Amino acid sequence: MEPIRSYASQEIEQQTSPIEPQKQPKSKKRKVWVPGLLLLTPILLFIFGFFVIPMLYILYLSFISTDNLGGAEAVYSIKNYTQLFSDSYYLSSLWLTVKISLYSVLVALFLGYPVALTMAKSSARIRGYITLLIVSPLLVSIVVRNFGWYLLLLPNGTINQTLMALGIIDAPLKLLFSEIGVVIGLSNAYLPFMILSIVASLYNIDPSLDKAGAILGASPFRKSYITALLTSPLSVPQLVLGIALLMYFTPMMLAGTSTGFLIAHIVICIPYVMRLVLTGLSGFDYNLERAAAILGANPLTVFMKVTLPLIGSAAISGGLFAFLTSFDNVTVSLFMVSPEMRTLPIEIFSQMQDAYNPIVASVSSVVIFISVLLIVILEKIQGVGKVFGGSHHTNG
């Protein structure tokens, strides 16, 4: 006999049965990400106009084999590339560059992996302190750091004097203006990036990072594409970027002007600001914005009263790091300055090219003091370790 089932039980089963989610129409999805795209339009146009186009412009110029760049008499060919790969001078320079780069990578990997492994296995507090020590050199002017290595690697510098005092060597080693000196300097400059890259892969990926991009209503593909575009200036050597901007700005009468100088520095600062602000957004609870909107707050009020106070520290940290990046820059600035407009790092660089001048040490000390002061402010506001990923937690 078939069991009798009550109407109540049937109703309960119907209520507890899984409900298939309804698919949103494409028009509704489009309405979600269009406002975010409109907010991104100014910065995307800026990056496209002052980074993407200059890169394409220098690629275009590489196919012109005459002095008349882009004129009616311009001759387009691959002659420049043929000369590049057939001239022994350029080939030897290319091989030397590749060799030094490989040596620097190996040294940085050898020194950086144990530190990254230690960070991954340490507590959050210890990781923060280690990250502070690792990142601090990045916040000091590269010119000042190179000046320090210059003094250390001199024939009568600290390294040679120490080795001779210990009886390890009888005569000074040629460390300055040599391959080993270049490898030491490059390894020191890029060791923090090696450590942070390795330790990032050892951390568990925080799923809330995807929520940071979701505020723009973008799909994962769009988010990764936009992020790659906005951080693309970091993937291009600053020497190439400086040359491209110089050649791009010259016909526009912006080369050697304060406007061109400012645009160039904004291009190199945008990626750092974006990454630091995204770090602040990674832990942001977007339900707070929804709750404020439900209570009747307009979008501007939600941003000013809810969003901005919560991510304000990340925005300030991004601004401070952008200031340090601009204050420290030499490579791009060399192509943008004029005799009447020279920054302090460029003056230090010029003084170092001629001969040692004691005033350089004083100027470098001032630069170090400014950098340390900003590092302390950054640590108090958000924490250098948190900014650069030192506060990640691992399971177990």
Structure characterization notes:
The protein is mainly alpha-helical. Among the domains are: 80-204, no CATH class; 207-341, MetI-like (MetI-like fold, Orthogonal Bundle). The chain has helices at 7-16, 26-61, 79-86, 88-121, 124-135, 142-153, 158-165, 179-202, 208-214, 220-230, 238-249, 258-281, 287-294, 299-328, 331-336, 344-354, 358-381, 384-387.
The geometry reads as: globular
Oligomer: single chain
CATH superfamily of one domain: MetI-like
**Helicity, in percent?**
over 70%
What is Rg?
A: 27 Å
Q: Give me the secondary-structure category.
A: mainly alpha
How many helical stretches? 18
* Beta-strand content: under 5%
Mean pLDDT across all amino acids: 78
Number of strands: 0
Write a concise synopsis of the structure shown.
With 396 residues, this protein is mostly helical.
